[in-house]
């Protein structure tokens, strides 16, 4: 690998303007002739607008060139290795994109008669069963739009069940290593959050849970493998302790990619879990959505699942809304159907053998990186990891180089950084999740970059601390953005209207 | 089909580096009792060709708008999507990237989101917009929750128009069901198909937190928000407008001009395929003074160390990854690829195009309604002005649906499933995708 440039090479290419700073009055990238129908008479004048001040006036090529240029200012999985921990940035297969665009999936309307949607509902019905089988749970709802909405849904199921038994209870126990969505979803479900510390080994032990368990605890939320990349090996004992006091166990399935074909959450004493289809099942992250966060439950929670439920009778699919104990709808229509189609396509592509192999190779890749970096970066927990490994900046800190600096310097080497400063229990965490779709050569390239940076931290710390040097913009002033937020373009703020004409 | 690139010799070499003999050893912390039962009972993997065939077979059992005439709206609309939209969102730099936590290598997504936020502000006439939420229904629920954060605890009554989309009413109810202090009440609609303002005014008091109305509402009626806004102002309640058909805002007075507190809705109409109702996105716009109460992602402008303009995620102290149980919301996705599609869509149409398309919708919908009333003898159910959807009453609804189905036409959404008093009514939507010939066939099928 060639040494990345140490200094910023100024480019003569001007940074892209905003859509609102280009174009010309009256220009449009859309052609549709006027029609002679009545418009004025149809909408009273008091309910009409004359203009949309500031709206774009651009031609089609101008628009395409604008967004193409913007795309070139992004990292993506097909251009860069993207080992972002806990996000499972695996390859997003092209065939999934092709099938999701079939007119029979993309151009179907959710309120069409159900007999005109039999293929779509069959796909959903099958996907529910596939996800049940993979997770070892009994029933699935595909409605939640994302992992966080899956969490909220799962907690609502727990609450509805406990309320029916007479007492919804008050608290949710959440480990200190949990994703921030766990406590946030608990609050939204009307619960107080009690934090439980993981042991020195980075996992939860049953004795600690036992001390915290009482009749006010509705559930324990646990992530397995947890965000330290460690398998919660006491999970069965922990679940038994929770169940003994009448609580339930929620599993955050964000890290399911480590477990497919290896262990089923349904066998661990878990009562409800969500799965992130945009992680384990390869659907594109889209720069921050859309994802999908189906929930899976044991039989005791089935009655509370969101409506509508899919039922199959004599080969015909129908929807049931008459579920009196259901928590209701958590979103409109059927959830993120287009995402569900992609996940289904991925799962049948890989099959049972391919899914299991994917999990195994995810572990192999993570442990390979762990081994190769263990002498240059401090390992957070001296245990073999599952699908991701956590390092800290402790060694580099001696020369004043922090995790943030290491992350920014990786950008100069052409790699997306790992997740940083998470989980919160590890000071200066660098959380690396390579996923299974990377070759050992790519991992070697990344390792080489990390080793160079460790060297630079010793010999030339300023170089690392002032990184990145080769990105379209350099370190950004986030404090300024938050202090006086500018969250939209406004004409008076720009240097006049830069449009011609 | 597999996407793991490891050859046997790759594996062997990697195991040697790690210092173990088999991948199995990496699972030594997973109890035997779990591993023994983990085998997945699913078929073996398929070739890419077989996958395409299987999915094509499923797709062929659905009626697609490419083969059928749909007059279906009700929150999801069949609109024309220019080819350039898919060309942009198919670029892997946009589609495969993560939430832009590393702004130096995410300026593409961040600038596009900043532009999206601006476009939504312009379209709704509001001061600020977040980067997007799951869908219109969760946007409505998040608006109610935001009002709860702003209003005093003595105000916990939420008044929801019955003319708001039934799914949205259901989702709001689900989101509020575990917050013990909340009271949810419905406001009836009148003969115009609009929220009954007198009933609303009677129900508003000093405990009212917010009022939620559709604009246009579920019946397609363009409600005059002025009297509703006045009624709210008198009682101190906030007003939330919910728009499921944002193309209408190309022509209609924007919610911001009525002084609403929050303008939210479903963005699917703006360049996202119907796809059985998802994924698309919810938009969420409000006043600048509420910025620290916003749910979801927000992009702000700043500068880098060389004073170059750049964009970052901002006010993250509202969010779950920082604030955990005290966050404004648990949401951490902004449906970014869908909001990007809408940003490209709005950029292409631009000021004149979006107005033209809105006018075409109004014109065709009104022509269709006039002909269905005069020739097919259906009865107009409501008197209020409408954009591209309207409700008609038919004596023989079942028969009409059957006749239309034979002609590969879905004439609308029967309303009886949500409104018993409208059991013989059909919500009919006409967009630019329904040309004159389709409208002729619809009238013909109903008359035959």
General description of the model:
The complex is a heterodimer of chains A (501) and B (448). With 501 residues, chain A is of the alpha/beta class. In chain A, 33% of the residues lie in helices and 11% in strands. Chain A has 2 domains: 95-349, Type I PLP-dependent aspartate aminotransferase-like (Major domain) (Aspartate Aminotransferase, domain 2), CATH 3.40.640.10; 360-483, Aspartate Aminotransferase, domain 1 (Alpha-Beta Complex). In chain A, a hairpin with a 2-residue loop joins strand 8 (309-313) and strand 9. Residues 496-501 of chain A have low confidence and may be disordered. Chain B is of the alpha/beta class and 448 residues long. Chain B has a 7-stranded mixed sheet with strand order 2-8-7-6-5-3-4, sandwiched between helices. A 4-stranded antiparallel sheet of chain B has the order 11-12-15-14, covered by helices on one side. Chain B starts with 7 loop residues before the first helix and ends with a helix. Chain B has 2 domains: 69-81 and 352-447, Aspartate Aminotransferase, domain 1; 83-343, 3-Layer(aba) Sandwich (Aspartate Aminotransferase, domain 2). Chain B is built from 14 helices and 15 strands. The chains are: A alpha/beta (501), B alpha/beta (448). Chains A and B meet through helix 1, helix 2, helix 3, helix 4 and helix 5 of A and helix 1, helix 2, helix 3, helix 4 and helix 5 of B.
Beta fraction of chain A: 5-15%
Mean pLDDT across the residues of chain A is 95
User: Compute the gyration radius of chain B: what is it?
Assistant: 25 Å
The CA-CA distance between the termini of chain A, in Å, is 50 Å
Strand content of chain B: 5-15%
User: What kind of sheet is the major sheet of chain B?
Assistant: 7 strands, mixed
The most extensive contact between chains is: A-B, 202 and 206 residues
């Amino acid at each position: 690998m060639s040494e990345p440039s140490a200094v910023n090479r100024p480019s003569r290419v001007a940074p892209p303007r905003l859509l609102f700073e280009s174009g010309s009055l009256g220009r449009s990238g859309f052609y549709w002739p006027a029609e002679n129908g009545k418009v004025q008479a149809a909408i009273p004048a008091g309910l009409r607008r004359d203009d949309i001040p500031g709206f774009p006036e651009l031609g089609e090529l101008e628009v395409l060139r604008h967004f193409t240029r913007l795309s070139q200012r992004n990292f993506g999985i097909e251009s860069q290795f993207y080992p972002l921990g806990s996000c499972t940035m695996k390859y997003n297969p092209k065939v999934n994109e092709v099938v999701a665009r079939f007119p029979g999936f993309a151009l179907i309307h959710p309120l069409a008669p159900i007999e005109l949607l039999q293929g779509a509902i069959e796909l959903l019905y099958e996907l529910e069963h596939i996800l049940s089988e993979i997770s070892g749970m009994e029933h699935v709802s595909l409605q939640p739009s994302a992992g966080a909405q899956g969490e909220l849904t799962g907690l609502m199921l727990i609450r509805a069940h406990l309320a029916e038994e007479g007492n919804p209870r008050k608290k949710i126990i959440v480990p200190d290593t949990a994703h921030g969505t766990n406590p946030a979803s608990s609050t939204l479900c009307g619960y107080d959050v009690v934090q439980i510390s993981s042991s020195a080994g980075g996992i939860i032990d049953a004795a600690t849970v036992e001390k915290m368990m009482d009749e006010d605890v509705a559930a324990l939320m646990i992530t397995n493998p947890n965000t330290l990349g460690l398998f919660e090996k006491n999970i069965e004992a922990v679940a038994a302790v929770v169940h003994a006091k009448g609580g339930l166990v929620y599993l955050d399935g964000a890290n399911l990619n480590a477990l497919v074909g290896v262990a089923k959450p349904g066998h661990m004493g878990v009562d409800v879990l969500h799965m992130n289809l945009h992680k384990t099942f390869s659907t594109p992250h889209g720069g921050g959505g859309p994802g999908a966060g189906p929930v899976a439950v044991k039989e005791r929670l089935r009655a509370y699942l969101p409506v509508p439920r899919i039922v199959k009778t004599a080969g015909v699919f129908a929807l049931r809304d008459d579920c009196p104990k259901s928590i209701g709808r958590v979103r409109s229509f059927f959830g993120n159907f287009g995402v569900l189609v992609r996940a289904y396509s991925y799962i049948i592509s890989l099959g049972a053998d391919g899914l299991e192999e994917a999990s195994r190779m995810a572990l192999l890749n993570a442990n390979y990186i762990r081994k190769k970096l263990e002498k240059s970066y401090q390992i957070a927990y001296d245990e073999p990891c599952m699908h991701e490994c956590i390092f800290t900046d402790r060694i580099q800190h001696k020369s004043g180089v922090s995790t943030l600096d290491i992350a920014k310097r990786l950008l100069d080497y052409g790699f997306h950084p790992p997740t940083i400063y998470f989980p919160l229990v590890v000071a200066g965490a660098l959380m690396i999740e390579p996923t299974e779709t990377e070759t050992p050569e790519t991992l070697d390239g990344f390792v080489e970059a990390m080793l160079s940076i460790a060297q630079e931290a010793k010999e030339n710390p300023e170089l690392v601390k002032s990184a990145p040097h080769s990105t379209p913009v350099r370190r950004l002033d986030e404090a300024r953005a938050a202090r006086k937020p500018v969250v939209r373009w406004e004409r008076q703020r720009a240097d006049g209207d830069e449009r011609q004409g | 089909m597999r996407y793991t690139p490891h050859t046997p010799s790759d594996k062997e070499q990697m195991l040697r580096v790690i210092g173990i003999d088999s991948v199995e050893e990496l699972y030594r912390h997973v109890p035997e009792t779990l591993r023994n039962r983990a085998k997945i009972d699913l078929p073996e993997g398929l070739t890419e060709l077989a996958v395409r065939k299987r999915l094509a077979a499923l797709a062929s059992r659905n009626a697609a708008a490419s083969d059928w005439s749909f007059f279906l709206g009700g929150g999801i609309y069949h609109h024309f999507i220019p080819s350039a939209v898919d060309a942009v969102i198919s670029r892997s730099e946009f589609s495969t990237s993560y939430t832009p936590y590393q702004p130096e290598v995410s300026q593409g997504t961040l600038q596009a989101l900043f532009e999206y936020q601006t476009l939504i502000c312009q379209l709704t006439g509001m001061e600020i917009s977040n980067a997007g939420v799951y869908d219109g229904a969760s946007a409505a629920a998040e608006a109610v929750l935001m009002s709860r954060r702003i209003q005093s605890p003595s105000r916990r009554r939420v008044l929801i128009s019955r003319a708001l989309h039934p799914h949205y009413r259901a989702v709001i109810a689900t989101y509020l069901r575990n917050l013990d202090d909340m009271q949810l009440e419905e406001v009836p609609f009148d003969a115009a198909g609009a929220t009954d303002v007198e009933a609303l005014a009677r129900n508003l008091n000093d405990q009212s937190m917010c009022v939620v109305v559709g604009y246009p509402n579920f019946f397609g009626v363009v409600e005059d928000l002025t009297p509703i806004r006045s009624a709210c102002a008198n009682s101190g309640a906030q007003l939330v407008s919910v728009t499921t058909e944002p193309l209408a805002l190309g022509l209609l007075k924007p919610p911001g001009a009525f002084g609403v507190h929050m303008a939210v809705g479903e963005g699917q109409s703006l360049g996202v395929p119907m796809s059985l109702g998802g994924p698309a996105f919810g938009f969420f716009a409000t006043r600048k003074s509420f910025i620290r109460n916003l749910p979801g992602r927000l992009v702000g402008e700043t500068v880098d160390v060389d004073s170059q303009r750049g964009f970052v995620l901002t006010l993250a102290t509202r969010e779950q990854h920082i604030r955990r149980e005290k966050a404004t919301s648990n949401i951490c996705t902004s449906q970014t690829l869908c909001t990007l599609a809408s940003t490209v869509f709005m950029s292409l149409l631009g000021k004149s195009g979006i107005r033209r398309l809105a006018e075409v919708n109004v014109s065709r919908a009104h022509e269709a309604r006039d002909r269905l009333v005069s020739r097919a003898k259906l009865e107009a159910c409501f008197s209020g002005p409408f954009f591209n959807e309207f409700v008609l009453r038919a004596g023989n609804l079942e028969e009409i649906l059957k006749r239309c189905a034979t002609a590969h036409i879905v004439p609308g959404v029967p309303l009886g499933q949500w409104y018993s008093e409208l059991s013989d009514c059909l919500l009919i939507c006409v967009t630019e995708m329904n040309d004159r010939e389709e409208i002729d066939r619809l009238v013909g099928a109903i008359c035959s």
